[in-house]
Amino acid sequence: MRTNRPIFTETNAIHRFLIWSEKRKNGPFYIRYGVPVILVAVATALKIQLLGSFSASSPFLLYFAIICFCTITAGIGPAIVAVVLSAVAADYFFILPKNEFTFTGLAFYKMAVFLAESAFIILLSSAIMSAYRRVNQVQTLFRAMIEKGSEGIVLTNREGKRVYVSPSIERIIGYTADEFLLMEPWVLADPDELEDMKAKMDDLLLHPGENISFIHRMRHKDGRWIWMENSITNLLDDDAVCAIVANFYNVTERVILEQKKDDFIGIASHELKTPITTLKASIQLLDRMKSEPQHDMMPKLIERSRRNIDKLTELVEELLNASQIGQGHLHLAKTEFVVTDLLMECCHHIHSAEKHNLVVEGDRELQVCADRARIDQVVVNLVNNAIKYAPQSKDIFLCVERANGDVRISVKDNGPGVAPEKLPYIFDRYYRAEVNSFNNSGLGLGLYISSEIIKKHGGQIGVDSKQGEGSTFWFTLPIERN
Ligand code: ADP
Q1: Which secondary structure element, helix H or strand E, spans residue 69, and what is its range?
Q2: In sequence order, what are the residues at sequence separation of 6 or more whose Cβ sits closer than 8 angstroms to the Cβ of residue 133?
Q3: How far, rounded to the nearest angstrom, does the alpha carbon of residue 444 sit from its chain's CA centroid?
Q4: How far is Cα 232 from Cα 204, in angstroms, rounded to an integer?
Q5: pLDDT tens per residue across span 301-344
Q6: What b/e sequence results for 242-261 when a residue is b if at least 16 CB atoms lie within 10 Å of its CB, and e otherwise?
Q7: Which of 449, 476, 472, 471 is nearest to 461 (CA)?
Q8: How far is the CA of 139 from the centre of ligand 1 (A)?
Q9: Is residue 11 very low, low, confident or very high in pLDDT (cuts 50, 70, 90)?
Q10: I need a surface site. Which of 125, 216, 434, 454 has the fewest CB within 10 A?
């Protein structure tokens, strides 16, 4: 069975030994310095026993290995101890005349060469260790980037078989690296996009070193379609890589947001066009009547124009608000006020239209410290929505109460309610529950703006709704003092 191609040197025995050695360097002092003493003693005893096999002309051979081992596993200090002990033992036991210390003539030269070679071994071993340490650090960094990052990496060989799949792929498409490695290419791709993607890949195979990027759909393990941005480079001719390298990013959220923006532009244009068309028609009629100012239609046309200008102003303000909030420019001017006062005053337009009954209930004394104009905007939006989406609901209830140390304000209607599957998205930007309906106009921004205002105050916003049983939109504000 095919398995992932090893791409890190940790899989190699020398690297594993060097990593192990690195850890030993932090070991206790007596072990680090005891090891050279023991090793030199054992090597000396061995050499004395096997003196016949070891030529007296190479008395330091075994000691070099000990010095190298001590430098790698214990550091420079223990290596110097090994050098000194080896020099003493070799001089006494193996350099002629034996069994006495000699530091003159040939013995002196031998000792000088030994010390120089030992210094060279220590330097070389330390340099190798620090190079490996660096390689290890870089490798750990790359491993973290490849395995823990949000990007999936796949290497494919010349025959089209996957040879390496990064573990991060599981977070993107739900399949483990091993499952994805053994999967035939393209099985998860959208059949409608297959021909196009295959043509792109065939073309890439003819152009070593080149890169292509495209966005395509892929089937997640749980069955849903996700959008992938795929950046593929042909590195088959690069000896170190020898593969086609594909980097995958999950861009589903970005694609959906872009689609929502496109839909939004369509809706916004429609919303703006309706009052503009009516306004234009009214102005044309007024223009024709300018010679007869007493005409019966005149006041009606002026009133219609005013209403359409109000509607346009409202839409433009909503767009401006959403754009300011999107850029993080929502500033609050907090004051203390009684919540019921705000509820009584904010919806004059509803009272004067006399179509709906606003019933204010609850604790009439409760005060909050908040941006009054912004809270007014939230309440007006919730009440306007209740009227827009629950037109048959004669009574609309506004309630103020204390809840878990906060003030809770709710707007309740007896309209059609919101479908449970739509509830999680209702406060999202551009979200409109009835997407294809132009019966109820709106930009899908009102609840988003309201939720941002409430979040900025440190409160919460939500909705309790059952289809057919009306909705209660509510928000909380912390009770705080200036
Ligand atoms: P819009 O500009 O579309 O009114 P909102 O953000 O204010 O945008 O509302 C988002 C969606 O929530 C609306 O399109 C509507 O489907 C749904 N909605 C809001 N209020 C109510 C309500 N009281 N009853 C039923 N649905 C509602």
Answers
A1: helix 61-74
A2: 22
A3: 26
A4: 9
A5: 999 999 999 999 989 999 999 988 988 888 999 999 999 999 98
A6: ebbbbbbbbbbeebeeeebe
A7: 476
A8: 52
A9: low
A10: 434
